[in-house]
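REQUEST FORM: STRUCTURE PREDICTION
Request ID: SP-0412
Submitted by: Lab K.M.
Chain count: 1
Length (residues): 337
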Amino acid sequence: MAVTTSPYESDVLPEETVDVVVIGGGAAGLNGALMLARSRRSVVVIDSGTPRNAPAEAMHGFIVLDGTPPSEILRRGREQVRQYGGRIVFGEVTSADPAAPSREEDLRFAITLADGRGITARRVLVATGLKDVLPEIPGLAGHWGHSVVHCPYCHGWEVRDEPIGILATGPASIGHALMFRQLSQDLVYFTQGTDLDGDTRARFAARGIRIVDTPVQEVVNNDDGSLSGVRLTDGQVAARSVLAVATRMEARTQGLEGLGLPMQELPDNMGRGFAAGMAGSTEVPGVWVAGNVTDLAAQVGAAAAAGALAGAHINGLLAGADTDAALAAAKGETPAS
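STATUS: Completed
RESULT:
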């Protein structure tokens, strides 16, 4: 769901063509913008204010910043990008399309926002992130990011020694269970109709992981609203204080269809994101992707690193385009795009 009021101070959208528009203001987008702004590139980040990790109380697994609330990391990131002249603009992109350049220009892209505003950029970095698709179990989504978790590295320490239930979604859930078993001895694996062969059942038994084949019907809460367990279709209630689920991860692609970016599927129906090459480059000239929109399993640190790499690559190629244009001008020629 789009946010209609900006959760942060929004800059004015420039009227002139900028070097780079970054679509998405999470770790990948902001770090890419930081690299570009520090290279004295005119860069604008378009951010809808709906980060994937918004429900989480803290971000983990990133040295120095471990335990920092996601909102604080983004606040600092926006501040640092602005320190070097970058702009952060609140908005939702509804279209992004290649635009016809004039004879003396190289590539151009037209970006339009939901409120009708528009901006033209020489290059585009897509860092829109992803959305997690949860199983359709009543009551599950209300605990997302708190008692319902997906990543043993992001949330594992915080749920250590708790009674944990694994809601299976496919083959990937088997490895998921083994990782969460490292964190708690009290683990129940709800198969939810997924296949579990004899060898896997034996391995689970060896690790003390209990298996429940009866489907989960709904999540059950305590009087204070906290998670108390799950009700099975036979009416029994299995007490659990934490549920772990390997979500299907879907790249946020809305409004980007005009770019024609190729997609790629993860195995076992785990997710779908944009395909990327070196430094986040794509098959579409002038467009890069970084972070969870292409690397669906990347944590904050990896996403930020990918953004920095993409930003540096964009700057390097822009430097070459600037030199081509200067040389053509010196010769009185029109540079090739």
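NOTES: The chain has two domains: 18-131+248-331, 135-245.
Reviewed by: T.R.
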